[in-house]
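Q: What would this chain look like folded?
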Amino acid sequence: MRSAAIKGSRWAVAIGGFRSVDVVDAKGLIRRVSEAAAPGEAQLLDADRVAGWEHLRMAAVNAAKRTENRTASSRSLAVETLLTASCQDQITRGIEMLGLTRQTRNLALVVIAEERLGAEEAYDRASGELKYGDDSVLDVTPEKLKAIREFFGVTGPELESVGGDPSAALTGILVERGALLGLGS
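A: My prediction, written as structure tokens:
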């Protein structure tokens, strides 16, 4: 688990990964994790479609800023984080892209709460509902890089224009897409 304060905000985020989770009842699992994280907010995502810890941290940062600026698409920081991470402005589409299904095996847990200690404590409670904590499921391997590029439609020229490490470039592209949500409306 990694945590960080969200600069200029009362919020903080804690993020971690879980391997080999058997998602039999996604709604029930999400409910249990959310209840355990309260008064913080928790979001579970398909870790196989996440481009690293920074992708989720920046999704939470942008969600908090949009919520505070009253430009969010959702009333929930957790849902807004899902939307930002999925680069979508519609909840249904965001869930389709990064939400849990019965096929999901690797999960990312994002918890947002007031203050860093609050986020870490809420994360610890929420993670108790899950097994096999393994933050390496958030890492962007060469295979995962290829799969995420295809899933989000990131082209080779787009990746090359950013330059540098391809994993970091992909993360940067997705963070930027998420940050730009709603600006065209």
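The longest strand covers residues 11-18.
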